[in-house]
Please model this.
Amino acid sequence: MSERMRIILLAALDEEADAFMPGKGKALDDAWPRVRRIRAHGHSILLAATGIGKVNIATAAARLHSLHGADLLMTVGTAGKLSSIEGDCFYLARSVQHDYGARKAESFVHYPPGAWPMGPANVEPYEAMADPGTRLPHACITSGDAFIEDAAYAAHLVAALEADVVDMETAAVAQYATSVALPWAGIKATTDDANHESAGDFHANLLAAASRAAQAMERLIAAL
Model:
C-alpha cells in the first residue's frame, strides 16, 4: 500500500491519544471527539480521543468516517492481559465482543453482535487486516462495557472466546469497520492482568503502556 491513505486512529483515553506522535499535527475544531490531524509517513491521520466504551468509540468512528472519509480504521491504547501469551504489546489480529449474548441460569452464552441471542452459540471473531510487518505477537482481543477485575471471569474469556487481551472498545470498531467494508487494525499494550489488582496496576502502568502502543502504531503506519 504505497499510496496515501486516510486513516482514522481511535483511542479511548486522552493519555492514549496524546502518546501518539506528541506535539505533532493540528487540532481540529470538532466539539467531539477531540481530533488531531497528523500528516506522517505519506498518510493523513485523524487521531481521536473518543471516551471509554463501545458506544463512544463506534459513534466516533461513524461520525469521523462520515465527515472525513477513511481507507482504514485503527485503534491504539491499552488493555488487560488474559491468557499466557508472551509479550506486553500486541497486534490485534482478531476481536470479539464478550458482553453480547444470552444470560442463562447456568452461564452467559456468547453470540455475534446483532445475531439472535438464542440457539447454538456461534461466535465468529472479526479478522483484522494482514499485519504489514509489525513483528509483534498476534492476539485476539475481546471487548465489553466492563472493566475486568476478576481472574475467574478472565479465565472464562480465555476458555470461551480464545481471547488473549481485553479492552472496552476494539471489537466495536471492528464491527463498524466490517459493516461498512473498511479494513481495520489495532495495537494494544497491557497494563494489568484482569484480576483483583487491575485498578491499581492500570493507573500505575497507563502512561508507559500507552507509549509502547503508540510507538508500535507509528511503526505500523510507516510500513503501510
